[in-house]
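User: Hello, beginner here. Can you help me understand these amino acid letters and fold codes? It all follows right here:
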Amino acid sequence: MKVKITKLLIFLIVIFFTSFYLNSQTVKTYSKIYVINVDGIINSIMASYIVNHIEKIEREGDGIIILRIDTPGGLLESMREIVLKIMNTKVPVIGYVSPEGARAASAGAFIILACDVVAMSPTSNIGAAHPVNLGQKIDRVMEEKIVNDTVAFITGIAKKRNKNQKIAKLMVTKSISITAQQAVKKNIANFIANNIEELKSKLENYRIKKNGKSFLIHIKNAIVQYIKMNIMEKFLFKISHPNIAYILLLLGIYGIMAEFSSPGIGFPGVVGSISLILAFFALNTLPINLAGLILIALSIILFVLELKIQSGGILGVGAAVSFILGSVMLMRTSSKFLQISPYIIVSAAIFTTGLFIILLMFGMKAQFYKAKTGKEAIIGEIGYAKTDVKPEGEVLVAGERWQAVSFKNQQINKGAKIQVVDIKNLRLIVKKI
């Protein structure tokens, strides 16, 4: 009896290990390799671009994904959206820090660690993932909570992908950044690849664990297909850069100022309105300081009021101060790549203030100009008599023929030089000069 039980146990053990071995040697063949470029700031536009294409590839089910990453970082919520999609998709996702000199910093470090396989070009680096202040002042307790939450998130990702949790934690707490060689040595990256072709070669028959199953990927004959942003995605992504968003905001302000200073032109108002709409869209994708935006909006109102009611410059000075303060405060963040260039702010402040002064000077000067229409426009004009004016006749003034009456019944001969003294009942009162 004991012999039979022993044989049965041996048989079951053999079956188990045979099944495990066969399962571990499962090969999945993919016909396509989709390369998605993650080049630039991680924001809502970039997140939408990545997530939408992962979902499309997942539906087709015939390829793997290579996220080609070169980013200084970006927004926390956009990064989390990308990470969640990578970790929950059925499609194998390969993170590749490329080209030479590329980086996966801040939010990019989370995204690269979430991938099933991590590859890096020889001169690339990864790390510096400490959360930064994005548009609001936080106290020490709140900052500690954010750091702890971020540490838990990145170590959870590292554990899931069998990466070095200690190094991943230090990327957040100490903002460390490591080279490609260090990343491989410290189990953050799987290997180094010089280009896509070398990466493809190293991935051939590489073991991947996905959704609890381990298998080998076969991509020797797979076609590499590069997925780029379409025109609209590229346009929205470009204007979402802090400097571009700020310039659009300036164009909007200038257009509105020009429209109010010269009503009826139309073109500046249309351009200004479109620019403002695009600027507000772009700012919505960035970590803006609401107080800064309100100050800039106030500056627009004050500029327009100054042009309309002529306060003698008081409203204009307030507008200039409000504009400068709002510009400085607009992107209040310690993250350099999310800040507006100080050179652009200074240039814009000087140009805007100068433009306002010029418009104000023209407005004040216009008050002293002689009227160009109506009764006031014709009085004082010089002309000559077309006929004798004794005391009535015709005169030519400003290229037009008028019926005229001589001032105090003067006798004015034909061809004599005259000046308009007044106008009554559509007839000019003229005198000889």
